[in-house]
């Protein structure tokens, strides 16, 4: 169940459609069968949207949710799953989750906040939802514009829960050859909205790239006028030749992208960096590039390379990692 759908249902309930409780992970320690940003909506009638891990832990949270629905006041709860108990449920993990459970009931403040957040997330954009902990005088909830490239995880303090919310992140792959297509496919599977850009119409054909949200044909000499590239964009350069790689790197490296990776051997990367310096691209901009792109896992085939690249993107998304290692492949040899 998507985050946008859960928020939209909260908005519907808060607009007069019923009552429920929204359980959100506020903090997570150890290894647990849930995302660090997981949410679950429980309605007064017992229906559920989303999951916070299943099993005994989720059952405890559902029980607390019904109490929150009845009291119409938010609550915090801590749930532990030790190794022995996890094994009883067929799990191989253990840890502690701190949950924030808020009531959802007809109220204009709640309805407006949930509706705004749902709309932003549905567009694939980012926002920050701030929920006060003390609802004695009514619910406290607002939706704000986030800082570019801001935190990805919720922050719970003594007064509020601050949650960065976002739809699926967006990645632009420059190069629709064998490797570029597989990167787009793997990224889409991992939850990214993938755009593939190539200067050859046959390689940017939507029919050939059914997993891509968009396929764009444009000249590599000037991609910034044809493709949206902002602080939340992930970008991967995987073209068929060194000259295209250099042209794209010169345009993309100076931008404040969330992630920029470039496929190629260490020799090709060094050559590209040298050209960029001669074109007055700053050392800081060059250093931000993940090149060679991908985690060093010995990847060889297009599919393996795609997995290593997307794994590095996940590392950046989750903890801002600058891990190096990369896939050392000559781009001219892997992209037709």
Per DSSP, the total helix count is: 10
- Name of the CATH architecture of the largest domain: 3-Layer(aba) Sandwich
What structural category arises from helix and sheet content?
Answer: alpha/beta
Largest β sheet strand count, sense and barrel closure: 5 strands, antiparallel
Rounded mean pLDDT is 88
Helix fraction by DSSP (H/I, runs of at least 4): 25-40%
CATH class term of the largest domain: Alpha Beta
Specify the overall morphology: elongated
Give the low-confidence spans: 327-336
CATH structural fold name of the largest domain: Rossmann fold
Order of helices and strands: HEEEHEHEHEEEEEHEEEHEHHHH
Distance between the termini: 38 Å
Mind telling me the CATH superfamily name of the largest domain? NAD(P)-binding Rossmann-like Domain
**For the largest beta sheet, what order do the strands appear in spatially?**
3-2-1-5-4
Count all strands and give the number.
Answer: 14
């Amino acid at each position: 169940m998507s985050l946008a759908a859960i928020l939209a249902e909260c908005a519907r309930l808060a607009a007069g459609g019923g009552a429920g409780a929204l359980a959100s992970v506020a903090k997570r320690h150890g290894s647990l069968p849930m995302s660090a940003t997981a949410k679950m909506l429980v309605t007064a009638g017992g229906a559920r949207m989303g999951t916070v891990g299943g099993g005994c832990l989720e059952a405890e949270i559902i029980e607390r949710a019904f109490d929150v629905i009845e009291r119409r006041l938010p609550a915090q709860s801590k749930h532990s799953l030790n190794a022995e108990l996890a094994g009883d449920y067929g799990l191989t993990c253990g840890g502690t989750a701190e949950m924030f459970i808020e009531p959802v009931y007809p109220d204009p403040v709640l309805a407006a906040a949930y509706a705004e957040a749902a709309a932003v997330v549905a567009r694939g954009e980012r926002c920050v939802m701030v929920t006060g902990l003390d609802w004695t005088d009514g619910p406290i909830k607002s939706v704000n514009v986030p800082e570019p490239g801001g935190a990805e995880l919720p922050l719970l303090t003594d007064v509020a829960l601050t949650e960065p919310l976002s739809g699926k992140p967006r990645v632009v792959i420059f190069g629709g050859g064998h490797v570029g297509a597989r990167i787009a496919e793997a990224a889409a599977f991992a939850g990214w909205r993938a755009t593939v850009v190539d200067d050859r119409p046959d390689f940017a054909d939507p029919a050939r790239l059914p997993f891509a949200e968009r396929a764009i044909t444009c000249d590599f000499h000037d991609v910034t006028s044809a493709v949206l590239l902002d602080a939340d964009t992930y970008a991967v350069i995987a073209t068929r030749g060194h000259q295209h790689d250099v042209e794209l790197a010169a345009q993309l490296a100076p931008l404040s992208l969330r992630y920029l990776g470039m496929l190629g051997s260490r020799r090709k990367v060094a050559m590209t960096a040298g050209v960029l310096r001669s074109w007055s691209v700053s050392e800081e901009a060059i250093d931000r590039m993940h090149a060679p792109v991908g985690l060093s896992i010995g990847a060889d085939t297009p599919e393996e390379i795609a997995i290593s690249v997307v794994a590095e993107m996940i590392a950046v998304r989750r903890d801002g990692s600058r891990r190096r290692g990369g896939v050392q492949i000559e781009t001219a040899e892997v992209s037709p």
